Amino acid sequence: MDNLTEDHQERNIGIDGHINIGNIGGEVNHNFDTEKTASSTALAREELGEKDMSPVAGNSMHRSSSRPQLDLSGAAIQGNFEEKDPTILLPNQSDDISHLALDIGGSLIKLVYFSRHENQPVNDRRRKIIKARLGITNSNRMSYPILGGRLHFVKFETAKINECLDFIYSKQLHHSGMDSRHWQSESPNTGNTIIKATGGGAYKFADLFKERLGISIEKEDEMNCLVAGANFLLKAIRHEAFTHKEGQKEFVQIDSNDLFPYLLVNIGSGVSMIKVDGDGIYQRVSGTNVGGGTYWGLGKLLTKCKSFDELLELSQRGDNRTIDMLVGDIYGGMDYSKIGLSASTIASSFGKAISENKELEDYRPEDISLSLLRMISYNIGQISYLNALRFGLKRIFFGGFFIRGHAYTMDTISFAVQFWSKGQAQAMFLRHEGFLGALGAFMSYEKHGLDDLMVHQLVERFPMGAPYIGGNVHGPPLGDLNEKISWMEKFVQKGTEITAPVPMTPPGTTGLGGFEVPSSKGDTLRPDASKLNVGVLHLVPSLEVFPLLADPKTYEPNTIDLSDHGELEYWFTVLSEHMPDLVDKAVASEGGTEDAKRRGDAFARAFSAHLARLMEEPAAYGKLGLANLLELREECLREFHFLDAYRSIKQRENEASLAVLPDLLMEIDSMDEETRLLTLIEGVLAANIFDWGSRACVDLYHKGTIIEIYRMSRNKMQRPWGVDDFDIFKERMLGSAGKKPRQYKRALLFVDNSGADVVLGMLPLAREFLRRGTEVVLVANSLPALNDVTAMELPDIVAEAAKHCDVLRGAAEAGGLLVDAMINIQDSPTRERSISVPLMVVENGCGSPCIDLRQVSSELAAAAKDADLIILEGMGRALHTNYNAKFKCDALKLAMVKNQRLAAKLINGNIYDCVCRFEPAS
Amino acid sequence: MAGDGVEVAKLEEKELKLCEDQVSHLALDIGGSLIKMVYFSSSSSCSTDDQENGFIREGTNTSSGNLEYRVLSGRLHFLKFETSKISECIEFISSKRLQHYGDQGDEAPAGDKHIVKATGGGAFKFSDLFKEKLGIILDKVDEMSSLVAGANFLLKAVHHEAFTYMDGVKDYVQIDHKDLYPYLLVNVGSGVSMIKVDGDNEFERVSGTSVGGGTFWGLGKLLTKCKSFDELLELSHQGNNRVIDMLVGDIYGGTGYSKIGLTSTTIASSFGKAVSQNKELEDYRTEDVARSLLRMISNNIGQIAYLNALRFGLKRIFFGGFFIRGHEYTMDTISVAVHFWSNGEAKALFLHHEGFLGALGAFMSYEKQGCTDIAHQFMEEHSSVAKSPFCTSDRLESSTHTDVKDNGCIECRVQVRN
């Protein structure tokens, strides 16, 4: 138990780079005495709302089914749902450091703040061994200059600045800024706190901040901030930029080495055009006074709209042809094709108003708004293009409050740029466009350590609140998980009276209808469907790019692109249908209590809302592949404290599989080399049928015991398989015509499911490699995802298997997976190691059924250095992701296709077809 | 708006009395807002003998004895009508029998059809109407070609055609027509076309914007309830745009944003002040609204024009089109915009006959039909006879006033093939 506790502690560090407590709603472990100080940090679980990576399989696997209660008596629970991530402030959690920066604009206040946590000493046994094995030294760890943490993006209306002040107060953000030491020494209100801010309001509201929060505002230059913010986003977030044409968003990956120069067009009240040549190197080259202020100002005069958003909303129902003079109006419906003007080109904005005998009142405000919007957007696009051309800039990025994710605005600007450049230049937009200034102000703090952050060290998470917002949510403040669940429940009750713009989930799922922001106030902003969601950026400095990727720049993990709406719809249905089963499992895993049921319902609602949001706007969360969608589900489970929904199932299946393993090994050992290799590969494919992620397979489980199904499945493996490179693989392994091939030095085996899959499929295969003198590294998930085996669980499974197999025992001992082996290594490592090549286990750094090899754990990256063979097993890692991935070493991709649609699409085959794809090093 | 029927009629009657009128060669530019008309009336009493002699001599020389020419002296008349009142235009043509110029034996058009050169979108749109009402077949001339031909003609032939206008000071610019090309021609009509001109009939429409005269007038009409373009212009003359525009100083608390070269009076956002003020349209003075609108549009046109000139390395930008109509504040704003964005390196130039480029160009195009060498000779004559008197009516004098009489005429000679 002590060891497990330590594991728990350690796991969180490794994955997230900081300590999360997975036990806010769970247990406070009193075995922590020796590390009281350190673990108290762990309790400073700041964001209840977005539990990432925190749950611990090893821990939960062994803990009692009744949930120990966390004593929160000393805690001040505060928070505000605006931020969708309520805060829990525990006393004495003083080393929780954060930074706050503001951009106070005319209409919106943008807030960026960062919460981070001290790193902790590494004390996980498995990891220690791995580090020793793989030669990861402590100095390596020291090379991470920054600590993990989270970057939050929040918006408030400037008119409601008090909400913003309350928020800052409730989060105690005003004690951070440049002067966090005061916070640590518990004398927070020294009045010395300085907060960086930009935007006109930084001047206007300086006194208010001083008076209410004791904050001194330090004004940062607006242009500086915009540029710094844009540079950070474009470098740090992989698909930050997107193009927008005819309503279609397409995310663009920008090589951060090839970013500069570019033109940044910030459309605020007026428009600034800035040529950016590097970090801090820029020049305002142009601008125009016809900007957002013109749209709103003129629009207000012409339509009597009360707000910018109202005006924008009007435009969506407008027809500008009633008021604009088109080329066709002048040419009697004909094009002026000679100069490339079609009949529908606007010849003169508002030009039709001249000849018609109409007053302002005779025109629909909708039409006026649209005409105005087109005029201004188009004009900005044109002037931007001319400036880009002037300086030979390839890329134009548009940002600022005017755009605010409005589809028509973006379309018009894109059209203008496209039209005038004859397709040579592209307008691009930024997902975080509203936060450029605030982010830039944030970057202006010295030594926040974010400058060198690499794209692979950032993970964006969309917590529960995400589906409802583009940043503005109004509702009652939420404190803890309980209130969050209540909110979800209330939400559903209110569902009938709230208009639902999002599509209904298909009947027969969780029965959750559409969502809308619950309006506590009548005048809240109505979310624009096309507006994009901004998640919380998790900074995970320990993540690395998998070193064996042939070309990390062109690597795309997802095989299936969900920007294809049909594909998205399909997966939406699959995930929706699978939900009741998942909820049952999750609830059962938590003892089936009333509390667990409530959480289960809340999870179902929240995840349904995510799905509904994505159906409404597929680009809402950025570029989304199937891997991301599946991971979102796992994240959502964790958010409602379902740490390991398949815990008991995994355990049961592991036990059942381990029981039949000796027989299987005997059977295999009786075969000749060639038959054995085929049988082992068949075994991997056959055992891969045990997959709780596949609906078809779940139905199978009720029809027999594990070994029966395994044998049946293996017997049905008729070659040739859907993709069958077995002969090539065999030749590489066994050679041909008496020529003995070089054995692999080290094989990385990416394992998939618990139970038969890993025990009867992958372990026997690993054993074969070990017998041939190849080191084997089993690569497993860091966090639970469905019934996937985790790196935490694997050593126990290997240890159990090793009881009946000398090969495995020797290798596991050599790899330090067995306790007594560890002692041996420490006593006389040389002698022990010479006996057997090692079998090791490393975590992959993720908690998803798929894997994005651009972001893997440092230990996997280290293990990969000497590897010359990669085996990816299972649909998630070999088909949904990485099917098309190319590696620097040989790669074998093994999976049974347990989905008809995927089988048809990928291999032109049928459900239960098998893939055995062998690709020599590229 | 000019083209007011009564006024036009009166003016023309006056001219008819002066010259024994032999009307011929009508050309039209039918735009989205205005119909511009150019026609020639010949009358020997309008010209002096020595000029006539000189012209004949010159004409004979240049034509190299290919053909014989009859030289007509007379005037080019410039008129305009609102497109929405096209019937007035048709009545005028009918009353002056302009469509019958071909019957006067100057030339022989094919058959009995009266062919009139026309350009602008309306040449397509109203083709049937002209046919029906006047029996005229509109021969469509490309709009851009016409603009360019008109501008080239004016810049080469008319002595004081181009001028700069800055801070209320008008400076004539003598343009060496050997060093005329390339230049950017910005025609500000309802919309705006920007044309790079490299020579006679060598040009390319490189840009344009939909924010033009039509926008000023259209939006202005909605915002101020003005009845005419001129009324709106007049209003703008008395307005103060600071009431409604958001200036850099408004954002930065009275100081400029000197770091990026913006003074406190620079407009940061046109109409931006309306955002924060709790005012309705009615609470603003129409004069101020008109002024803001004018500045917004002029500034924008100036900026886009400059950027295009820069792109092609063009030294000169000529602004034409009815939107400008000699309005000093408009010209001033455009000039300031060009000056501002080019850091003083480029200058906006304006044309006296700005509104008639297209119509004039259409008029010049008769040459191509093989009927006469008018255009060619016309230019030769004027460029070689610098002292040639041209009757520009009150244009020159009035251009500093807000209301310009657009109807005028140029005294000239036309050579017609016998």
From TrEMBL, chain A:
Residue ranges of every copy of the Damage-control phosphatase ARMT1-like metal-binding domain listed in the record: 588-906
Pathway(s) it belongs to: Cofactor biosynthesis; coenzyme A biosynthesis; CoA from (R)-pantothenate: step 1/5
Protein name: Pantothenate kinase 2
Function: Catalyzes the phosphorylation of pantothenate the first step in CoA biosynthesis. May play a role in the physiological regulation of the intracellular CoA concentration. Functionally redudant with PANK1. The phosphatase activity shows preference for normal or oxidatively damaged intermediates of 4'-phosphopantetheine, which provides strong indirect evidence that the phosphatase activity pre-empts damage in the CoA pathway. Hydrolyzing excess 4'-phosphopantetheine could constitute a directed overflow mechanism to prevent its oxidation to the S-sulfonate, sulfonate, or other forms.
Annotated Gene3D superfamilies: 3.30.420.40, 3.30.420.510, AF1104-like, Uncharacterised protein PF01937, DUF89, domain 3
Disordered, as annotated region: 48-70
GO MF annotation terms: ATP binding; hydrolase activity; metal ion binding; pantothenate kinase activity
Family listed: In the N-terminal section; belongs to the type II pantothenate kinase family.
One annotated Gene Ontology cellular component of this protein: nucleus
UniProt-listed CDD domains: ASKHA_NBD_PanK-II_Pank4
Coiled coil location: none
Source organism: Sesamum indicum
Keyword terms: ATP-binding, Coenzyme A biosynthesis, Hydrolase, Kinase, Manganese, Metal-binding, Nickel, Nucleotide-binding, Transferase
Catalytic activity as recorded in UniProt: (R)-4'-phosphopantetheine + H2O = (R)-pantetheine + phosphate; (R)-pantothenate + ATP = (R)-4'-phosphopantothenate + ADP + H(+); (R)-4'-phosphopantothenate + H2O = (R)-pantothenate + phosphate; (R)-4'-phosphopantetheine sulfonate + H2O = (R)-pantetheine sulfonate + phosphate
InterPro entries cross-referenced by the UniProt entry: ARMT-1-like_metal-bd_sf, ARMT1-like_metal-bd, At2g17340_3_helix_bundle, ATPase_NBD, PanK_long, Type_II_PanK
Cofactor list: Ni(2+); Mn(2+)
GO annotation (BP), single: coenzyme A biosynthetic process
EC numbers: 2.7.1.33
From TrEMBL, chain B:
Ranges in a coiled coil: none
Protein name (database record): pantothenate kinase
EC number: 2.7.1.33
GO CC terms of this entry: cytosol; nucleus
InterPro entries attached to this UniProt entry: ATPase_NBD, Type_II_PanK
Protein's organism: Sesamum indicum (Oriental sesame)
Pfam family for this entry, one: Fumble
Pathway in which the depicted protein is active: Cofactor biosynthesis; coenzyme A biosynthesis; CoA from (R)-pantothenate: step 1/5
Subcellular location: Cytoplasm
Catalytic activity: (R)-pantothenate + ATP = (R)-4'-phosphopantothenate + ADP + H(+)
Recorded GO MF terms: ATP binding; pantothenate kinase activity
Primary localisation category: cytoplasm
One of the protein's GO biological processes: coenzyme A biosynthetic process
Domain of life: Eukaryota
